[in-house]
Amino acid sequence: MQPYFYSFSEFLAMGKHGVFVWSCWAITVGMLLAFIWYSRQQRKTLLKQLAVQQARQAQRPAKAKTRKPSSVTAAVPKSEG
């Protein structure tokens, strides 16, 4: 069995396609890293917003859990008969 590339420089050149191959790799890895960074930033922002919302809700006075029934009744049209 013979190796496809005999040296590291041949491996980097990839048979004169190295520029295309390695630029695609760089773009792909860059996009994955950017996605990971963006997702972490969104998570931090969401956790901060949730903490603020919980703090606001904790400061609100507790409302009565039982509500009085409304005295307004729906008007039902009479059927002709």
Fold and architecture overview:
- This protein has 81 residues and is an all-alpha fold.
- The chain has a domain at 8-59.
- 59% of the residues lie in helices and 0% in strands.
- The protein has helices at residues 8-13, 18-59.
- The longest helix is centred in the middle third of the chain and has 42 residues, at 18-59.
- The protein is elongated, with a radius of gyration of 33 Å.
- The relative contact order is 0.05.
- The mean pLDDT is 85.
Note the main sheet: none
Give Rg in angstroms. Answer: 33 Å
Instruction: Return the string of H and E elements.
Output: HH
Shape annotation: elongated
In short:
The chain has helices spanning 8-13, 18-59.
Features:
single chain; mainly alpha; 2 helices; 59% helix; elongated
Topology, pairings included?
Elements: H1 8-13, H2 18-59
